[in-house]
Amino acid sequence: MSHAIDFPTPATQPPPRWWEALALIAIYFLLQVAVGTLVGRSILAIDNLMLDSGSTGLAPALRLPTVVVVTLTLATAMIMALVRWRWSAWLDGSRLPGLGFVRASDRFLVTAAGLGFVVPIVGGILTGWLAHGQDLGQTITEIGRGTPFGARVVLLLVVVSVGPLVEETLFRGVFLGALSRHMSSAFAITASALLFAVVHLPDLHGAAYALPNLFLLGWVCGWLRVRSGSIWPAVLAHGANNLIAAGAWFVVTHQP
User: Fold this and answer.
1) Rounded to the nearest 5°, which phi and psi values hold at 104?
2) DSSP 8-state symbol, 1
3) Alpha-carbon gap, residue 40 to 42, rounded angstroms
4) 178: which of 21, 22, 135, 242 fits an S-S bond (Cβ 3.0–4.6 Å)?
5) What is the dihedral of CA 67, 72, 73, 75, to 10 degrees?
């Protein structure tokens, strides 16, 4: 005898709450540290075993990119599974506090792609003006130096797809949805963009003059999420932005 499965509905499953959203964002970054440490130690252990047996281990230039790709992929998979489990009834909600996992119109996808290429240019000009000639070192740039061409291709694909997916789910999905329950969409977009900018400062070695650039990207992605009713334009804009940023070091630092 079969039994019907009762899927959660908005009436039985509460939408994201602000403290849950903040906790999930913290979990994501802690996962990166924990998984990255585990993956890094595993690679070293495997390399040592291979060297002891007379085999060649993983090339040193491939170790850090491998750790980054595996870590980001695993952390993203765990976070997305957690979001699906916790807020499955709100995934396809186009209006806040829904998470916006619905198809976007072609008009907004084209707009998102255009904004994704324009924002890093405008943000770069703004950052250069605020930096007053200081060098803006980024973690992704440092990872790119000395990395073989093939590994850079894989790293680039992850940076423009996996990274934007999980970050937009967290900031423009869960967090923006949670904030929308307590404030207007405009304030929620602004608050989400501000937190997005602040949590990325470690990747920029704490360079505060990069905050406006990060804030601009976060605000544009939030605006796209609200106006389109879908999270996919925000993911696309974020990915295009990362393509410009990562593509720059990909070309400049490549050594045949």
Assistant:
1) -95, 155
2) -
3) 5
4) 21
5) 120
- pTM for this one? 0.90
State yes or no: pLDDT of 254 exceeds 50: no
Cβ-contact 169, 83 below 8 angstroms: yes
Are 114 and 224 contacting, i.e. CB atoms less than 8 angstroms apart?
Answer: no
| Burial class of residue 244 in the structure, from the number of CB atoms within 10 Å of its CB (0-12 exposed, 13-18 middle, 19+ buried) | middle
CB 20 within 8 A of CB 83: no
What is the tens place of the pLDDT at every residue in 74-99?
999 999 999 999 999 999 999 999 99
Using an 8 Å Cβ cutoff, are 210 and 127 in contact? yes
- C-alpha to C-alpha distance for 155 and 254, rounded to whole angstroms: 13
CB atoms within 10 A of CB 53: 8
Residue 205, helix vs strand vs coil:
coil
